[in-house]
Design brief:
Elements (H helix, E strand, L loop, with lengths): L1 H12 L1 H39 L3 E5 L16 E2 L2 H6 L4 E7 L1 E2 L2 E4 L14 E5 L8 E6 L7 E5 H7 L6 E6 L2 E13 L7 E5 L1 H9 L4 E2 L1 E6 L5 H12 L3 E5 H48 L1 H9 L4 H41 L13 H26 L16 H26 L4 H39 L3 H13 L1 H39 L4 E5 L7 H10 L3 E15 L5 E9 L3 H4 L4 E4 L9 E5 H7 L6 E6 L4 E10 L11 E3 H5 L10 E8 L4 H11 L6 E5 H44 L1 H9 L4 H40 L9 H18 L1 H8 L3 H6 L2
Parallel strand pairs: 6-11, 8-10, 17-22, 19-21
Antiparallel strand pairs: 1-13, 1-14, 2-12, 3-13, 4-6, 5-9, 7-10, 8-11, 9-10, 15-23, 15-24, 16-17, 16-20, 16-23, 18-21, 20-21
Helix pairs in contact: 1-9, 2-7, 2-9, 2-10, 2-20, 7-10, 7-14, 7-20, 9-10, 11-12, 11-22, 12-13, 12-14, 12-22, 13-22, 14-20, 14-22, 20-24, 22-23, 22-24
Family: Belongs to the ABC-4 integral membrane protein family.
Organism: Streptomyces gancidicus BKS 13-15
Protein name: ABC transporter
């Protein structure tokens, strides 16, 4: 009980100093809990939607996949006659044929896309009784003819649509127009998809190209019959050949379709939360180390009157426990608020998430509290152990613990060993022959070198601060020298504070090098390898519609040739039995002019002859395949072919690395027309001197489909920079959390350092140091610590980035590009961070009463 009282007294006595550490715990826990609540809420939203839209039993084609866009643009379908067989099954109450397609684009009379801007699909289908499970007709009526349609209320509100407006639907099978006669409202939250409905015959004809087929059949069960029982009865009626699922199975399959995206986002955000926790550990260690140092006399007196080491140790750990509990409880609440904020932010981008679906599982606050408390107590363990070692004789000395010389040597040796091991594993990563092998060494090297730099930080601080002092501080005279000595007074503290900044900046530097190298390598490869002037693609990798390709071929002028590119799923088996699952690139023969590939043996042009193909260098080496050998190629949905190897291409490229080429005409012999994939892209080359006119004619030719992009090489490079830049900006935004926690660490270190030096500050003021000089001294000390951390971080990040580039080079991205302007701005920003972090501590130091400061013990 005495230990608890002592801990509570000390905690309350230093509550102002504990606040910043509590904020670090709060931010870290909030990020973890916010991530879990946000992703759980997304999961709940999708689960409710999938459950509401799924019938008791669903019958669909066996090869249908909910998470993949059909390669030929037309959804898998089954004959309408299946309905009669299903209707005869025992326990079936009603049966309906349904049509649903995501391979559509809906535009208004100004050719503006009415679909989602967040990547959510536009879904077109027929209106059925099953849709009443999830939607109500809130205005107008259901469509009854080929020129009528319904839209969902969210899409209508977003784009200002109303009854009577005419929209054009662009599908693989053609374009058609219809007027809005009804608006439907979701009974559950719609995450952002645009939904349009037609009558059944129109949906079959326009979306499937056939009038006697459906994409799936919905089955309602009789009362008293379970979904499982009805499924079994329907399966017996159909005798195989179809995918039959209960409502739960359909929901689970749909959830898997979005689960991968949600998991990537979830674990990425948790990873950044882990970085924030790691940075927070340094803040907590520094806080308790300094508090222990300031209470050396007090702890010595406690030992002198009978307190044991365990009691002193326990007293510090109880303070840490209190800090962890308070910070974690506040963090859990802040995490829920963060999740709501993320939901509102997603709403601004078009993805609707309702707070009615806010999901806070019991595991979320439990995990947040556990992490926050455990991390805080572990971080305080070393300072607590140090406090337990304070001898009663320390009560007779001034406050401040003596330097542990032995501990310093041990730290230096351990740090050097870890840093050396990290450097060696990074060397192994950089000299690896395969990127997959090198990535394992890279991950280990990053961890070891990071820990090594953290451990050896105090040793580095002693030397680097002197150098920085000579460069940055000597110009400020005696004030600069005092700032340097203050930073050197406790190298362990300076090293830990700088290490907190180092972690975030090292990641920023590494990612900047990787991103810049990827862009530079890709643009360099484009300049060397791409002969085409233009590339035509669909947004988000969607395949091009036949009408678009035809328009490029027939309507665009001033072109020398057009090359179609199709990604054809196929399994390739070598003579030795080695099987590779993947795809062939089926292209027009002119493709070899548009993308110049180095050929190691054979002639690539021969790969476009009858029953011929090319293979990549790695496949040829692995299987021993040579020019003239015959490969067995099983086309997905078609027949198996025997294709002759006409060429082996080099894998020393970032474009089409490892690709196997064949002609479109060859594939057409083995794949039926309804299984032939659509073009993934089209390349075009302009006549000499007519590039500008050809560019304009291409854009005009595809103008009717707003989802198609026409890019010249400059556009393509800019698009690549934008994509990588957006990704890096998002990562930098998440890393900002770690930087914020690190800044709090600098503030806390300086604030506690000012308290620790109260008497010294009073004496300096008494002998003539002005308030302005005192504040400048503290600001300069902060800048030196921040710059020290920045130099460590940038140096470490450059090493990581250069090693990562060596692995990228194995994938064809050979150009190492260090973004010096970005790194310079980061360095200058670190100095600014140091200035800002020192504002409050410097202000408080300047306001000290001189006499009271001198009288302080």
């Amino acid at each position: 009980m005495t230990v608890l009282k002592t801990s509570m007294r000390n905690f309350l006595a230093h509550k102002g100093r504990m606040a910043l550490s509590a904020v670090a715990v709060l931010l870290s826990v909030a990020f973890v809990c916010g991530t879990l609540v946000f992703t759980d809420t997304m999961g709940t939203t999708f689960d409710k939607l999938f459950a509401a839209t799924s019938s008791d039993v669903t019958v669909s084609p066996k090869s249908a996949k909910t998470d993949e866009m059909p390669r030929n643009g037309v959804p898998e379908s089954l004959p309408a006659s299946v309905m009669e067989l299903v209707r005869e099954a025992d326990g079936v109450k009603s049966v309906e044929g349904a049509v649903s397609s995501m391979s559509v684009t809906v535009v208004d009379d100004k050719n503006k896309n009415m679909g989602s801007t967040t990547g959510a699909p536009t879904i077109a289908g027929n209106w059925t009784r099953n849709d009443l499970r999830s939607m109500d007709i809130s205005s107008g009526r259901a469509p009854r003819g080929p020129a009528e349609m319904m839209v969902d209320a969210d899409t209508a509100e977003k784009h200002g649509l109303k009854l009577g407006d005419e929209l054009r639907t662009v599908a693989v099978t053609g374009d058609f127009k219809a007027r809005i006669v009804g608006i439907t409202t979701f009974k559950v939250t719609n995450p952002g998809a645009a939904i349009v409905y037609f009558d059944t015959s129109t949906a079959q004809r326009e979306l499937l190209g056939q009038s006697d087929r459906f994409t799936h059949i919905t089955v309602a069960a009789e009362n008293g019959y379970s979904d499982e029982r009805v499924k079994e009865n329907v399966a017996r009626s159909l005798s195989g050949g179809y995918k039959i699922q209960t409502q739960q199975e359909t929901t689970d399959e749909n959830r898997e379709g979005v689960g991968e995206f949600m998991n990537v986002m979830k674990y990425a955000m948790l990873g950044f939360a882990g970085i924030a926790f790691l940075v927070g550990i340094f803040l907590i260690i520094n806080t308790f180390s300094m508090l222990v140092a300031q209470r050396t006399r007090e702890i010595g007196l406690m030992r002198a009157i009978g307190s044991s080491r365990k009691q002193v140790n326990r007293s510090v750990l109880v303070e840490a426990l209190l800090l962890g509990v308070i910070g974690s409880v506040l963090g859990v609440g802040a995490g829920v608020g963060l999740a709501v904020g993320l939901m509102k932010l997603m709403g601004l981008t078009g993805m609707e998430l309702s707070t009615d679906d806010l999901t806070v599982a019991w595991t979320t606050p439990a995990l947040g509290l556990l992490l926050g408390v455990v991390v805080t107590v572990l971080a305080a363990y070393l300072p607590a152990r140090r406090a337990g070692k304070v001898s009663p004789m320390a009560a007779l000395r001034d406050a401040g613990t003596p330097v542990d010389a032995k501990g310093g040597w041990i730290r230096a040796v351990v740090g050097l060993v870890l840093t050396g091991a990290g450097g060696f594993t990074l060397y192994l990563a950089g000299t690896a022959d395969k990127a997959t092998d090198g990535s394992l060494w890279l991950g280990l090297g990053v961890v070891l070198s990071l820990i090594g730099f953290v451990v050896i930080g105090p040793v580095l601080a002693s030397g680097m601060v002197r150098v920085l002092g000579a460069i940055l501080l000597r110009a400020f005279g005696p004030v600069g020298r005092m700032a340097e000595r203050n930073a050197l007074r406790n190298p362990r503290r300076t090293g830990a504070t700088g290490a907190a900044l180092m972690i975030g900046l090292a990641l920023v530097a590494c990612l900047s090098v990787v991103g810049s190298s990827m862009v530079t390598s890709a643009t360099d490869e484009l300049d060397k390898s791409v002969g085409a002037d233009f590339i035509v693609t669909g947004n988000a990798g969607a395949p091009l519609k036949p009408a678009t390709v035809k328009a490029v071929q027939d309507d665009a002028s001033d072109l020398v040739h057009v090359s179609r590119v199709r990604e054809v799923p196929a399994d390739v088996t070598a003579p030795d039995g080695t099987k590779q699952e993947g795809q062939l690139l089926a292209t027009d023969p002119t493709y070899i002019q548009d993308l110049r590939r180095e050929t190691l043996s054979g002639t690539l042009a021969d790969a476009y002859g009858d029953d011929a193909m090319s293979v990549g260098e790695e496949f040829a080496e692995k299987t021993g395949v040579e020019v003239g050998d015959t490969l067995t190629v099983a086309f997905d949905g078609g027949r198996t072919a025997r294709l002759r190897v006409a060429a082996v291409t080099s894998d020393d490229t970032a474009l089409d690395q490892g690709a196997m080429y064949t002609g479109i005409e060859t594939v057409e012999r083995y794949l039926p027309a309804d299984r032939m994939p659509l073009e993934s892209s089209v390349l075009a080359t302009a006549k000499d001197g007519q590039e500008k006119a050809a560019y304009a004619s291409l854009k005009a030719a595809v103008a009717s489909d707003p989802t198609v992009r026409v890019m010249d090489q400059t556009d393509y490079k800019e698009n690549l920079r934008d994509q990588i830049g957006q990704l890096l900006n998002m990562v930098y935004g998440l890393l900002a959390l770690a930087i914020v926690v690190a800044v709090l660490g600098v503030v806390n270190t300086l604030a506690l350092s000012v308290v620790e030096r109260t008497r010294e500050i009073g004496l300096m003021r008494a002998i003539g140091l002005s308030r302005r000089q005192l504040r400048r001294m503290i600001r300069l000390e902060s800048v030196v610590i921040a710059v020290f951390g920045a130099l460590l971080g940038l140096g470490l990040g450059l090493g990581w980035g250069a090693t990562a580039h060596r692995l990228l080079a194995l994938e064809g991205m050979k150009v190492l590009d260090i973004p010096w302007p970005t790194l310079v701005w980061v360095f200058l920003g670190s100095a600014l961070v140091g200035l800002i972090a020192a504002l409050v501590p410097a202000f408080r130091a300047g306001r000290m009463n001189v006499l009271n400061a001198i009288a302080t013990d």
